[in-house]
């Protein structure tokens, strides 16, 4: 790959990356898509997607991703199973060092690496993620009408999840490992005052009960009056254990944007690591030729439909930028 300079490389193969690939490929930019360690991103953990436009009966997360990949390939996108280990974004063309040992050069770069939800390390969470365990209440909350559900966390994310779930669930219990919240005063008060929301203080989730066939059926919680009970449990200290019947468990302990490979580059990131784009309706960053799409630059909405939208925007922005570069180059080469 080293000898050829591509017009566009898309880093990430979730819904934003696939949308960018479709638009870039239809513009004859022949994009390369770096699929990353988990092709398809977070949507592959969602069994049913009911709020993506055009699928009135819903669609499986994996199916939606696979369709998007096939669509991008149909228009000429090339997929490579690799991640970016480091990036030189100061020289032109950009140079990406990949996990497969190859080097990839590109004129424009679309960063669509997403954000990874933090998990809590409870037993069986790997098996039941997407089967009653979720990291997105707005994605999956409607599946839990009439259920008793748990929300894990104590920050604004957990309060937002709980307040949204209270529209559907019979009851919502926020499980927090300390006896005070990290959430803002406004968000904390809304949750504390809500008639459907209860709190389990100094408590953590130890084990999730259920199966992929049945979904989540319950959970084992541990608690200790001094907080952080899992740590005490693992150290052999005495803690209280409690088995509860619940139909869903939602993790609200935040997301980590996948921007490690940008930390030593000139691209601006916020304090949490999200890619910063310029003011206004654009996906451009402070580095000419670098564009952002999806959850990596969006800490607020984090929806498949918005990610797809920003993916198309990034491709359109990249196409316009490349056209401008070509026009300037032609003008400079034309004799006066």
UniProtKB/TrEMBL annotation:
The keyword Calcium does not apply. Coiled coil: none annotated. It comes from the Archaea. It comes from Natribaculum luteum. GO terms for molecular function: oxidoreductase activity. SUPFAM superfamilies: FAD/NAD(P)-binding domain. This is NAD(P)/FAD-dependent oxidoreductase. PANTHER family: THIOREDOXIN REDUCTASE 1-RELATED-RELATED. The keyword Oxidoreductase applies. Keywords: Flavoprotein, Oxidoreductase. Residues 7-311 form the FAD/NAD(P)-binding domain. It holds the Pfam family Pyr_redox_2.
């Amino acid at each position: 790959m080293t000898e050829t300079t591509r017009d566009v490389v898309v880093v990430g193969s979730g819904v934003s990356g696939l949308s960018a690939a479709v638009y870039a490929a239809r513009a004859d930019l022949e994009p390369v898509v770096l699929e990353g360690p988990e092709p398809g991103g977070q949507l592959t953990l969602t069994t049913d997607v009911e709020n993506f436009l055009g699928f009135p009966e819903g669609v499986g997360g994996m199916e939606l991703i696979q369709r998007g990949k096939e669509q991008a390939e149909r228009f000429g996108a090339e997929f490579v199973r690799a991640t970016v280990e480091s990036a030189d974004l100061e020289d032109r063309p950009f140079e990406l060092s990949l996990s497969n040992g190859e080097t990839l050069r590109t004129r424009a770069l679309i960063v669509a690496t997403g954000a990874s939800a933090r998990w809590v390390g409870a037993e069986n969470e790997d098996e039941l993620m997407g089967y009653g365990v979720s990291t997105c209440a707005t994605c999956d909350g409607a599946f839990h009408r009439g259920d008793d559900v748990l929300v894990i966390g104590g920050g604004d994310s957990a309060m937002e999840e709980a307040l949204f779930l209270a529209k559907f669930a019979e009851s919502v219990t926020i499980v927090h490992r300390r006896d005070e919240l990290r959430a803002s005063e406004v968000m904390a008060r809304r949750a504390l005052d809500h008639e459907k929301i209860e709190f389990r203080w100094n408590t953590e989730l130890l084990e999730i009960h259920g199966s992929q066939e049945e979904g989540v059926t319950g959970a084992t919680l541990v608690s200790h009056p001094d907080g952080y009970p899992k740590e005490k449990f693992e150290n052999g200290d005495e803690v209280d254990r409690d088995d509860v019947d619940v139909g869903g468990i939602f993790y609200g302990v935040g997301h980590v944007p996948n921007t490690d490979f940008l930390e030593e580059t000139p691209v601006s990131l916020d304090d949490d690591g999200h890619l910063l784009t310029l003011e206004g309706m654009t996906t451009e960053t402070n580095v000419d030729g670098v564009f952002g799409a999806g959850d990596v630059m969006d800490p607020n909405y984090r929806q498949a439909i918005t990610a797809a939208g920003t993916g198309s925007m990034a491709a359109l922005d990249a196409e316009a930028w490349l056209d401008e570069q070509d026009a300037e180059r032609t003008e400079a080469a034309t004799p006066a």
